[in-house]
Amino acid sequence: MFNFTATPPLSLYIHIPWCVRKCPYCDFNSHEARDGIPEDAYIDALIADLEQDLPAIWGRTIETVFFGGGTPSLFSPQGIDRLLCDVRARVSLKPDAEITLEANPGTVDHARFQGFREAGINRLSIGIQSFQPELLKKIGRIHDDHEAIAAVKAAHQAGFENFNLDLMCGLPGQTQTQALQDLQTAMELQPTHLSWYELTIEPNTWFHRHPPQRPDDDVLWEMQQAGRAQLEAAGFERYEVSAFARHDRQCRHNMNYWQFGDYLGIGAGAHTKISDAATQSITRMAKQRHPRNYLDSAHSAARISSSTRLTPQDVLLEFAMNALRLDQGFSPAVFTATTGLSYTDIETIVNRGVADGLLDSGDGIIRTTQKGQRYLNELLQQWMPDT
Description:
Blueprint: E1 10-16, E2 18-19, E3 31-32, H1 39-53, E4 61-69, H2 77-88, E5 92-103, H3 110-119, E6 123-129, H4 133-138, H5 145-157, E7 163-169, H6 176-188, E8 193-198, H7 206-209, H8 217-233, E9 237-240, E10 243-245, H9 252-258, E11 262-266, E12 271-276, E13 281-287, H10 291-297, E14 304-309, H11 312-323, H12 332-339, H13 347-355, E15 359-360, E16 367-368, H14 370-374, H15 376-381
Parallel strand pairs: 1-4, 1-11, 2-3, 4-5, 5-6, 6-7, 7-8
Antiparallel strand pairs: 8-10, 9-10, 12-13, 13-14, 15-16
């Protein structure tokens, strides 16, 4: 089975499930805040949730914290401050821990950003998606291009030196010229990180029931290649399929996911993955998904909606789904350290990927080739059982 000599790095994810309006493409656990947000009650629930999870992480240091949603910026700076103080009182945070908060341009201003920074947030992730007003309307965003630009300027004025802008490509009716204009506008706002990813149609979304007309695969591939060249020419290095960063500004929290590190998730629908060297096991848990059910159960074991011990085959596929997205790839030693498995467990799969031109392992580091990046789903099929 597994053979851990040490446990991987550990992150903390905090889920804030409310938003102003559900976007038609969104399949995240988000709920429209029609009747207001029970902020204090939810913070109490988060801390109760964390306290019950503490035995699983005794003695371990948390290296990154990420507030995701939903729209975490709907919470008040005072609420975020209280929550972070309570977290610090219960767990060991690395002195230079990266603490990220997702923000929607339609829910923030300078004073709010200033409050978040004073509370301890040191990195923002601002969901722009596009600077084209007509495209923003098509994807149901609550902000326009002027609000998006104003939000980024407010982040600068509040003293945030490290922030990400989220942009999408492949939007309904989007041309390559519009996509490249979005990137240019974003770069002029001087972020340290850009997430530029394809709009995908997920089950249980409005777009799944009413599919929009999107660019075809060949047009989208050309758009992505042109955008990548534009970003790299401006000093943004791609380090993951859809993530670009200035030097040494990669998102440490997401890197921990992609390198198959451990993470503790608190909040409605949050997920946890914990490796235990003592029991030589990896456990995945999920919390109650609906905010009402989570609030009702947060002080008891009923807050956990599922708990599963992963099998080696589970781990092989999950590792591949993350690590193969990284441009830097992974070494056999990293694979063994983070999964507790032997490299021989994947050697045949890697050799097959190399033979198909989807992987490269010439320098002892396993990476996806350009062909492998384009056909990543097909590559992952090789890591599934009975392939």
